[in-house]
Design brief:
Shape: elongated
Distance between the termini: 48 Å
Mean pLDDT: 89
Number of domains: 2
CATH topology of the largest domain: Tetracycline Repressor, domain 2
Largest sheet: none
Radius of gyration: 21 Å
CATH class of the largest domain: Mainly Alpha
Strand content: under 5%
Low-confidence stretches: none
Order of helices and strands: HHHHHHHHHH
Number of strands: 0
Structural class: mainly alpha
Length: 204
């Protein structure tokens, strides 16, 4: 559906974002959103079918952009494996820093996803990213094995917990209200910490 650029629609979006950030999805009030946009509640339904569609309109562009960045970094890692042998050196694409820059370029949207999405289909967003990271990392490890790298064996549950802890850590600056400067410094630290561990684990 084309984006509505009318003044009323813009006011609704602004009022909805403020409402969801303050109250969360479950406690958000359409009556307060309508008041914030200076329209009647019935007027909201000319723009959105329901409250969840309103929330979706706020977060979906950020989600799409985040996944696009994720798959771009994924492609870079797998692309660097073409024609390699046992001497392969794991590339450091600063993916944690790149992800953090994107998150902080869309900070309010990620606050909505991480802190305010209970009751929506987005409430497991971080878990879904962790599952994707787990699947991609496992596929990456299998490709390294084919290249002759001595991948260490690890219990599947331990692997799940390690990957989940990393993904959760990426979003902690949003939860803790870090400034962009502090979040990027933290991202560099997190990247360095996990890169060293993964290099050892991958045997490269």
């Amino acid at each position: 559906m084309p984006r509505d650029k009318t003044e009323s629609h813009i006011k609704i979006i602004e009022a909805a974002k403020k409402e969801f950030l303050e109250y969360g999805y479950n406690e958000a009030s359409l009556r307060r959103i309508a008041a914030g946009a200076n329209i009647q509640v019935s007027g909201l339904y000319k723009h959105f079918a329901n409250k969840e569609e309103m929330f979706e309109s706020l977060v979906e562009p950020a989600i799409t952009g985040f996944y696009d960045l994720y798959h771009q970094i994924e492609s870079e890692y797998f692309g660097a494996m073409d024609g390699i042998d046992r001497g392969y050196e794991l590339e450091n694409n600063n993916e944690t820093v790149r992800a953090m820059k994107f998150i902080y370029a869309h900070l309010e949207e990620f606050k909505l996803l991480i802190q305010c999405a209970g009751g929506t289909r987005y409430e497991n967003f971080v878990h879904e990213i962790a599952k994707l990271e787990e699947d991609v990392t496992m596929r990456y490890m299998n490709e390294l094995k084919k290249k002759g790298c001595d991948i260490k064996s690890i219990d599947s549950l331990e692997f799940h917990l390690l990957v989940t802890s990393y993904v959760g850590a990426v979003f902690q600056p949003v939860t803790h209200g870090l400034s962009r400067k502090k979040a990027l410094h933290y991202a560099e630290t997190l990247q360095s910490f996990y890169m060293s561990a993964w290099k050892d684990f991958f045997g490269i």
